[in-house]
Amino acid sequence: MNASTVSPDNGSLAEEAVDQFVARVLRRAHESAEARNAPNEARAILQVAHMFADELIASEPEFDRLGFVEAATEGPS
What pLDDT score does 20 carry? Predict the structure, then answer.
């Protein structure tokens, strides 16, 4: 499952899996909330990550749900 997106490194179009793109965006938002000491916002972002994971696993049963949620909240930037 791939989609054309803007590369985070150089702004050019590149192929990036949708789940990786979403996890990266959620991770940045989660890190920002944690840096601002905004636990309610961080929890809301975690809930959104779980909702995305639920949708992704519904369309792809072998999808790594736990890995996605971890990447969305704990992975490297």
Answer: 92
Q: How much is the CA Rg of the chain, to the nearest whole Å? A: 13
Nearest to 66 by CA among 77, 28, 76, 52: 52
What tens digit of pLDDT does each residue of 16-45 get?
Answer: 688 999 999 999 999 999 999 999 999 999
Domain that holds residue 57: 19-73
Asked whether residue 7 is assigned to any structural domain, the reply reads no
Position 2 in a domain = no
Separation between Cα atoms, residue 19 and residue 28, nearest integer Å: 14
